[in-house]
Automatic annotation (TrEMBL):
CDD domains: PBP2_TMBP (cd14750). It comes from the Bacteria. Pfam families: SBP_bac_1 (PF01547). Keywords: Signal, Sugar transport, Transport. The lineage of its organism: Bacteria, Bacillati, Actinomycetota, Actinomycetes, Kitasatosporales. InterPro entries: Bact_solute-bd_prot1, SBP. Residues 1-28 form the signal peptide. This is Multiple sugar transport system substrate-binding protein. It comes from Streptomyces pini. The keyword Ubl conjugation does not apply. Belongs to the bacterial solute-binding protein 1 family.
Amino acid sequence: MRWTRAAGRGLLAAAVVLAGYAGLGSPAAGPVAHAGGRGPVTLVTAGDLTDYLDPVLEDWNRAHPGEEATLVELPDSADETRAQMVTGLRSGSSRFDVLNIDVAWTSEFAAAGWIAPVDPGRFPLDAFLPPVVDTATFGGRLYAVPYVTNAGLLYYRSDVLAKEGERPPRTWAELERLASEVAPRHGLDGYAGQFLPYEGLTANATEAVRSAGGSLLGDEGATVTADSGATVEGLAFLADGVREGWIPKESLTWKEEESRQAFQNGRLLFLRNWPYVYALAGGEGSKVAGRFGAVPLPGPDGPGVSVLGGSNLAVSSLSRHPETAADLIAYLTGEQVQRRVLTEGALPPVRASLYSDPELVRAFPHLPALRKSVLAAEPRPKSPRYDQVSLVVQAVVHDAMAGRQTPRQAVARLARELRSLARAGAGPSRED
Ligand code: GLC
């Protein structure tokens, strides 16, 4: 299933709603490599939201004969994409040149030596939104260049809330009340996010924990900070929802797309998801077009914390054409393509100036609010063992949400398992 072509206009609107706050690396038999690391390259990426990339790469290819870029699309799910990239990199294959990696993976890929450090002088880092640049660094070095950003939002059915004389929730208590009392009166389920055990659940759980004032790891993965009342409160928010019925059990199997479908088919009062949903839920085929809005995520006593999502572009350490790869990254993160990321891809760009570009703001009036929301979003924990950290978080949180452990038991287990990972070596390490 694909997150298909999205109308850029929707994104803008999306922001709407932030109302108020917010080639193959030529194998031996392949094409002859140009001197100096130049030649055809591949751009490998998750297979979602990529339709706009074909014409973008065609433009590059026309201007760069002999250095053509080929798109390699992997599965939509963050975890499956990562697994396929890692399998290729571990096998020593030079099939991938430019990797479009989730912001959450920079530390792990850098520590494992799968991606090569990037020369910061080659990219105008000052032109990017600052928190986004931070996701591309590890151990004080730049390993990637920001490409697309993301921040979690709360989508709500504006028609239902208006009928009830209610405003979108700003606290968990308001969300819980509306989800448990109002939703059933309208034949709706209350609230859902991405609760299948995969990276999406880690993002949702991190948001809940951070919103409650807690955290999971510190010091680039070296210290475990998960054992706290705030972590229990964060997990309890999610677990109580399922137990009390205002989070539908079925959502324990949903990723981004399943949850978006449920919302735009008119089944949910509230949905936590990324800004891409705005365009799609407002477009053709959506039953809720014109009848929903989005606001910053709520937290225990006021606005909550959203996780910084998105992806960075990195050069594979195994690339035979790293010079071309770096040039392709400069092209994709340049002002012109970044504009297309927004207008044709409906994705939040990383170039700060676009958020205040008069023409874009006219077309997408709430772009500045979206910027605010990205600037306020917090990164996931940095760790060279991020994949392991995420697997632990997913398993534990899913058990708590499924009622197999209480939030308190789940947090004790989470802290124990994260500590054993930290002991096993959380410091920067190379994998050969
Ligand atoms: C989105 C975000 C990414 C996150 C993923 C989780 O793709 O951009 O950062 O890890 O969702 O499913």
